[in-house]
Structure formats: C-alpha cells, structure tokens
Amino acid sequence: GSMSGPPLAAAIDAATMLVRRLRLEDTVSVVAYDQDVQVVAAPATGEAQEDLVQRIREIQVGGMTNLSGGWLRGRDLVAENRREGGVNRVVLLTDGQANQGITDAGRLTGLTRSAIESGISTTTIGFGPHFDEDLLRAMSDAGQGGAYYIEKTDQASDIFEEELEGLLSLAAQNIRVTVTPGADAEFVRVLHNYPNHAQDDVLTVEVGDLYAREPRRVLMEFLVGPEATGADVAEVAELTVTAHVLTDEGGVELHTIALPITVSPEEGSKVDPVVRKEILLIEAAEAREKALEAQRRGDYRGGSAMLRESMLSLREMAEHDPQVAEELRDLASTAELYDAEQLSVSDIKYMKQRSYSTHRSRDSERERYRRTKEEE
Asked: What is the pLDDT of residues 207-229, one digit of tens each?
C-alpha cells in the first residue's frame, strides 16, 4: 500500500526493463510481496517466459510490506537454480517501508549477509521519497551488491544499464583485502568506507565485486616511525588480496595475491597526484555527511560552513582536473541550498548517495547521479 501510485509504477517499469535486457539463456524469477508473498514467475529462461512482462504489469497494490518474506522467497528461488560460475543475485525493489515479517534493520541485514555464504548477492533499489536508504544500503553492503534509488521513472533505464553491464562484465567476486602492518609502520585507517572487521593487528576489508570496466580503490593510511629513517627500505604493510575470479571457460577459481608495501625513507616525502585527488574526494564526501548531521540538528549555517571549508581544499586541483572541478561546483550549489535553508528530501537522498558512491569508489554511479541532478 505504501507504494501506491508512482512508486509501484516505477518499480514495475524498472522490473520489465530489467527482464527485457537479460539474455535468453539467463534464468529469472519474479516475486511480489505485500502482507503475503506471491511468486509471479517461477525460475525459467527467457525462451520459456514470453508473457513475463505482462505478468509483471498485472502486479497490484496490496496492504502491508513483508519485505523479509519477499526477499527470502527470492533467495530460495535463486538458490534452487544457482549456477556455478554465474552471477546469482536477488534484486530487491522497494520503498523500504518494512512493516510486517522481520522489520528489525539488523536482522534484515543479517539475512543478506548469510546469503553471501551460499554465493547469493543482493542489490537494493529504493523508490519514491520515503524509502529508508540507510536500511537498503546496509542490506546491499552485507549482500555485496549495489544500492540505488529511483526518484523518477525515467532514471530506471540508466540504473539497470549500469547494473546489467556490471553483471555481464564481472571479473571477480568476494574480493577481500587483509592488512597486516609491517615492522616499521603503524596502521592508521582505511579512508574508503568499505565493510571491515579487525582481529588483533590484522584488518580485513570486504571490497565486494570487481567489474572489468571499473576498478575498485582502497586508500589506506600508515604512520612510519622515526626508527625507520636509517633503513634503506621500511616495511609498511603486507596486503593479501583474495577473490573468486571468473575464468574464460566460465568457471570460478580462488586466487590469492600477496602485496608487500615498502618505502625508502631516504627519498623523503612526496605527493602523488592520484592519491591526493582521492583524498580530496573522500574529504568532500565526509563534508556532505557532516553537513547532513548539522541539518538534522537544524544547524544550516554550520552545515554550509563545513561544505565551504571542503571547497577550499579542492580549488587548486580543480583548475587542472575536470572531476575535481565538478565536485567543487556541486559543493557550492549544495552550500547555497543550506544558506537558503531549502534542502528537500530529494537533495538529502542525493547527498547520501553521492557520498556512498565516493566511499565505495563507484565512479560511474557517482557520475550518473550527478547528471540526473543537473537535469533537474
């Protein structure tokens, strides 16, 4: 019922767009859920589902939202037809208002996390102005999929094009980076906001999937002690990267790569432009998050000040880098909204999504939301 009107229409249009773009040999199933859960289409390939689009369009508004029941049924259908070496994914379309079945955010997130152990990932797509983006992002993070929102129906095309292109160009899954500090350095932090957990002195970062056309970045900070200055080479850290890599034959192999990180203290300090740019973009994302916290307290002036402070750091590099220049313009336009105290629900969701995309080094996603905002 909460999806009555434009949100449900957008979800139906998005779902039909997705199934039309799948290959004939791909297996797809469709589940609709209100207080009850209904299998609209049992798992089958495109050749056996000529009327699938029509069945999706016949979905009607119901009552409550048993989000957990819908997701669980979808997971079971994917599990029944799980393909080794393929992408086995639940795409959850919702306005995020879970009010029946499992409604606790932690338990919902636990569901998508447990599915990963069976090789099933989860992408979430929120519709309308009222969905809970924090819940859906937590579910997609735990499920190692993407998190998107569709404010207007015409945005669905770009989102599904990105999601499908990613699925079709998938190079590796379940990428995990473990960080062990070296003898001459102390680990400080990971600047990108990936899910992670620490045990003793070892940090494990869950990067998720890797697509052929979009590399993932993990920026880390270490403190090299003064005792290392007399050494020819200082041992900073040992990184171990593990991933399930897709082979040309369609199989999956577990690969492990060890990456020792060293520096030469004699060379002194130096600034790498690529690293410096990434730091500036992450700081801009953090400024948006702090500004949103200020807005929730009613402190628009403080939020504007945080955004403008971040702009100062960007200005020098913006003269030579179009991406940084665009970041500067976006912060400036957002600061003006704060000055006028005219931040809408749509503006807030945009700021959250842009910050999320930066923290996960999803450049194409960040660019798409930027274009959408400019078109508005």
From this structure: 887 776 677 889 999 988 777 66
